[in-house]
Specification:
5-stranded antiparallel beta sheet; 14 strands; alpha/beta; binds manganese (II) ion; binds (2S)-amino(hydroxy)ethanoic acid; 13 helices; single chain
């Protein structure tokens, strides 16, 4: 039974309906009704594909397809079901559907590996709602504790802890018991859209990711003083926006100076009280810094903190910097990568080794397990926007490569 492009198309079109911004891209934030709708849809698809299904304490949805050695560590094939705001219909979720399609194919062909397979839809990989990231996979690794759940809050002041309760999950179920993931999971494999232009521009069909950039995220708060915009002389203001803007304006140049193909992004900005005729009392902005070279990340961080200190002192403002995510750069598993390379070649598909500028669930898992990440082309390299598109046929190719690689090696 071939891998069925039509089923993949239908699944992804159905899942695109679970959005809080219909007609304006996919917005499926964690612990929301849209996430719940997508999870229940995936639960049904996983079950119909012949898997036993469970939702873990962190809200990951997990289907299990048995192997001939039931006690063998699992092969985990995963990606995320949450999305960014007004994003596309492929980021993350396409990898979950690809995993389900692989198991449908194995079941219809009567293929049983030694290792059980777990197809996982992970929760809150993007970190958009709470400014974090890789929540589901980091929870699997025992890295998420109750204090973290209570301290990380969204823009409405709702903590992850309370969002979980409202969503029907018990935060107490999250265990920080350091799990021996390497004993439980034989390998972590993710199929994901490239979200960049390399495959599309070169016409290459399969991206073999050798490494993923490291990533640091901050929430910066600048505290000034609200005053009348008209009557307060310029030398008597403590203008939080003026201080923040002076620092933000320099960050992109510091990223270019840092080398290591570093990137730095200020993607969100909140102003209080956010009024045209009031000097800004407080500004909160996000910083997302990435590079395959950790020293480049550190150098940009240091320059931001130093500039904040100098600028705020000169204006009488104060500031705080809260680190909300810190993941080191990773190299992926060469053995698995070359197995993918060989299967791609045997299937007649072109492949290219590359570095991922986007983090993925593979990023935290690769620090603990043999992990691999396969890319499929993104049209014009666009992603995290409604224009995000991947041809369903390209997903079929990646699933065929994964299927061939698992069948021809002793998994
Ligand atoms: O932001 C990222 O790198 C990814 O989309 N989570
Ligand atoms: Mn994303
Ligand atoms: Mn993604
Ligand atoms: Mn990602």
């Amino acid at each position: 039974m071939a891998i069925v492009e039509e089923r993949i198309k239908k699944n992804l079109e159905d899942l695109a309906l679970f959005t809080s911004t219909p007609g304006n891209g996919t917005t499926r934030l964690p612990f929301t009704p849209e996430a719940r709708g997508a999870v229940e849809y995936l639960r049904k698809e996983l079950r119909d594909a012949g898997m036993t299904v469970r939702e873990d304490a962190a809200g990951n949805i997990i289907g299990r397809y048995p192997g001939s050695r039931p006690d063998a560590p699992v092969l985990m094939i995963a990606s995320h079901f949450d999305s960014v705001k007004n994003g596309g219909n492929f980021d993350g979720i396409a990898g979950v559907i690809a995993g389900i399609e692989l198991v449908r194919h194995f079941r219809e062909e009567g293929i049983v590996l030694q290792h059980p397979i777990e197809i996982v839809g992970t929760n809150d990989e993007e970190g958009l709602r709470f400014g974090t990231g890789y929540f589901g996979t980091r929870a699997m690794a025992g890295e998420i504790g109750i204090p973290y759940l209570r301290s990380m809050k969204d823009m409405d002041g709702i903590s992850i802890h309370d969002a979980m309760l409202a969503y029907g999950l018990d935060p107490q179920g999250i265990s920080t018991a350091e799990r021996d993931l390497a004993g439980e999971i034989a390998a972590f494999i993710e199929i994901h859209i490239e979200q960049g232009p390399v495959l599309y521009n070169t016409g290459v069909e399969i991206g073999l990711v050798e490494g993923i950039v490291g990533l640091k995220r901050f929430r910066v708060t600048v505290q000034g003083q609200a005053d009348h915009a008209g009557t307060t002389p310029m030398d008597m203001r403590i203008d939080a926006m003026d201080c923040a803007a002076k620092v933000i304006a320099k960050i992109s140049d510091w990223a270019v100076d840092a080398g290591g193909n570093a990137v730095a992004t200020v993607g969100s900005l909140e102003v209080f009280p956010n009024a045209i005729n009031i000097v800004a009392e407080k500004v909160i902005f996000s910083v997302d810094i990435r590079s395959i070279d950790e020293t480049a990340i550190i150098s940009i961080c240091e320059r931001i903190k130093k500039e904040l200190a100098v600028t705020c002192r000169a204006k009488g403002a104060s500031f705080s910097v809260e680190e909300t995510l810190n993941v080191l750069p990773v190299r992926l598993d060469e053995r698995i990568l070359s197995q993918f390379e060989k299967s791609s070649r045997e299937l007649g598909y072109s492949s290219l080794r590359m570095i991922s500028g986007a983090g993925h669930d593979t990023l935290p898992m690769a620090t603990k397990l043999p992990s691999a990440l396969l890319f499929v082309p993104s049209r014009k390299g666009r992603s995290h926007c409604q224009e995000e598109w991947t041809d369903y046929g390209d997903l079929v190719k990646a699933i065929e490569v994964l299927s061939a690689m698992l069948k021809t090696n002793d998994y």
